[in-house]
Design brief:
Blueprint (H helix, E strand, L loop, with lengths): L7 H18 L4 H38 L1 H37 L6 E2 L2 E2 L12 H6 L8 H19 L4 H10 L5 E2 L5 E2 L1 H6 L4 H28 L13 E5 L3 E3 L3 E8 L9 E4 L2 E2 L8 E6 L4 E12 L5 E13 L12 E4 L3 E3 L11 E6 L1 E4 L15 E5 L6 E8 L5 E3 L3 E7 L4 E3 L5 E4 L1 H5 L5 E3 L10 E11 L2 E7 L6 H9 L5 E10 L5 E4 L2 E5 L1
Parallel strand pairs: 6-12, 13-20, 22-28
Antiparallel strand pairs: 1-2, 3-4, 5-7, 7-10, 8-9, 8-11, 11-12, 14-17, 15-18, 16-17, 18-19, 18-20, 21-23, 24-25, 24-26, 26-27, 26-28
Length: 532
């Protein structure tokens, strides 16, 4: 299928949107704002056309995969994953549009009919407080930040799916789903959320959100066309049947029900399979899917399985064994600090992410300004911290943003609002000689030391600071004698100076430098010890 360009009608809608936005910025008449309704209606029509067009493409994937599952199957899987991701973003925007209208006009509004919005029925077209309240928020914690994270994630997913094979489509997607911060009317730097939605009237925000939905569907079409162009379908029939188990939830709490649907992936509508578990025949729904339900009476991992029986065209009964597993956990409560959300650059900071009622294997995280690892981090006593992930921030001065999402049994991914952590550099250690930084030291103890070391006695993490140099200063009869080391070890000349010290004299160690775990070179406070 060829790469599609915007139709003249779509170009006209885009031009109308730009003109009306400019007019709105000039604070023109209410009639101009009313014109946004016409643009929104045109966008809604365009969206309906996209749905029809994309559904036709999906049906082509179904046909190609049925004819040649070896070549087309993986592209069909990717296409339907794309559909799920596009629907997720589209539906989130649609819910925002409905929430704004319902908040502004109340549940009695005629503008909301099920999931459909009738823009002509919107009365409070110039209401400009509710959109900002919902999207921006009093403390900039509105839903526009989640929308931005969704759009960013969707955009990067689409680009990764193109895999560098379609630069034209990639560039179009980057532009249409761009969420870069901008500048306000006074030319000052401003967040994308504020630039896009702040103080705009309701009908303008609805139109902007509709345009975003068009951009989501248009990007979906771009990638679908690319995926379909990669298929070189042959013409042979499906020759393998695979039993499939789809649980409603793979993580349940004690006292609740575990439910799963067991079915044949390629079914024959003329006959119903027989599904048995532990010798018991399960009830089967109209699609040939067995319904398995059992009460979760104890916690921990649970395994179960059975047999699906089906007659082949020759009349022989074929059995397909299957097995599955789920996890039963205790109901839990998550308590998180809000004033101490800090991470240190250059080291792995452990975090523990959990969502009540969700199995840990269904939780995913994405991080802005940091890298992620699943390696366990140990404290200064060698004991591993509790946590299923660890984060190493990239830069100080920019918050680490963690975006958590969960995937349910149907494959739908639900994102949560981003959680942010401040980033600090690792603190400087204390330089020690014979385990001391100040006080007294016997001469024989001082003479027996190997060098200067860095210590972090009150820091929870087990960090390694490498001493890279220091100077020994010895004063006698008004003269100063200095000897330098370019490592943590005492040089022979430095040991000679220490041996010249007598009781009551001070041992000065200065110009102490060390290499921190984050790559910085630090200068540490000097060590002053009196010979005892």
């Amino acid at each position: 299928m060829a790469h599609e360009r915007l139709s003249p009608r779509q170009k006209m809608i885009g031009m109308m949107y730009l003109i009306l936005t400019a007019m709105l910025a000039l604070n023109v008449s209410k009639e101009a704002v009313e014109a946004f309704k016409k643009v929104d209606k045109s966008l809604t029509t365009t969206l309906a056309n996209y749905v029809i067009k994309n559904n036709l493409i999906y049906s082509e994937f179904d046909r190609a995969a049925a004819e040649n599952p070896a070549k087309a199957g993986k592209f069909k899987t990717t296409a339907y994953e794309l559909k799920s991701r596009a629907d997720e973003v589209f539906n989130y925007i649609q819910d925002l549009k409905k929430e704004i209208i319902l908040t502004a006009e109340g549940p009695e509004t005629k503008a909301i009919q099920g999931d459909e919005i009738i823009i002509e029925e919107v009365k409070k077209i110039d209401e400009n407080n509710v959109p900002s309240q919902i999207l921006i928020g009093a403390n900039y914690n509105g839903k526009a930040s989640t929308l931005k994270a969704l759009l960013n994630d969707y955009r990067e997913y689409l680009i990764s799916t193109l895999d560098g094979k379609n630069p034209t489509a990639e560039e179009a997607i980057r532009k249409s789903l761009n969420t870069d911060d901008g500048r306000d009317p006074d030319g000052q730097p401003s967040k994308w959320e504020t630039v896009t939605f702040h103080t705009l009237p309701l009908v303008a925000v609805e139109t902007i959100l509709s345009k975003m939905q068009v951009d989501v569907r248009n990007a979906e079409t771009e990638v679908l066309n690319h995926l379909y162009s990669q298929i070189d379908a042959g013409a042979f029939k499906v020759n393998k049947i695979i039993p499939t188990v789809v649980p409603t939830a793979s993580y349940v709490t004690a006292g609740s029900d575990y439910e799963a649907k067991v079915f044949i992936a390629a079914i024959d509508s003329t006959q119903t399979p027989v599904v048995t578990v532990n010798g018991t025949t399960l009830p089967v729904d109209e699609s040939g899917r067995g319904i398995y339900k059992v009460r979760a009476s104890s916690t921990g991992p649970k395994k179960w399985g059975g047999v699906i029986s089906l007659k082949n065209p020759s009349g022989a009964t074929i059995e397909y064994p299957f097995e599955s597993a789920y996890y039963v956990g205790e109901p839990n409560v998550v308590v998180s600090p809000t004033a101490m959300n800090v991470m240190y650059k250059g080291i792995w900071n452990p975090i523990d992410v959990s969502v009540p009622g969700v199995s840990p294997d269904k939780i995913k995280i994405k991080v802005n300004n940091g890298t992620v690892s699943t390696e366990k981090v140990k404290n200064s006593k060698g004991v591993a911290f509790k946590g299923n992930w660890s984060i190493n921030p990239t830069a100080v001065g920019q918050n680490v943003q963690i975006i958590v999402s969960v995937t349910d049994a149907s494959g739908k991914t639900t994102p949560f609002a981003p959680v942010e952590f401040r980033v600090k550099p690792v603190p400087a250690p204390i330089a020690v000689f014979a385990g001391k930084n100040t006080g007294t030291i016997p001469k024989n103890t001082a003479a027996a030391q190997a060098g200067v070391f860095a210590s972090m006695p009150d820091f929870e993490f087990d960090l390694v600071y490498k001493i890279t140099g220091f100077t020994i200063l010895y004063s006698e009869k008004g003269s100063d004698f200095e000897e330098k080391s370019t490592s943590s070890a005492l040089t022979p000349k430095q040991k000679d100076l220490i041996n010249r010290l007598t009781r009551g004299k001070n041992l000065f160690i200065k110009d102490i430098k060390c290499l921190a775990p984050d790559g910085r070179t630090m200068e540490l406070n000097p060590i002053i010890l009196k010979i005892d």
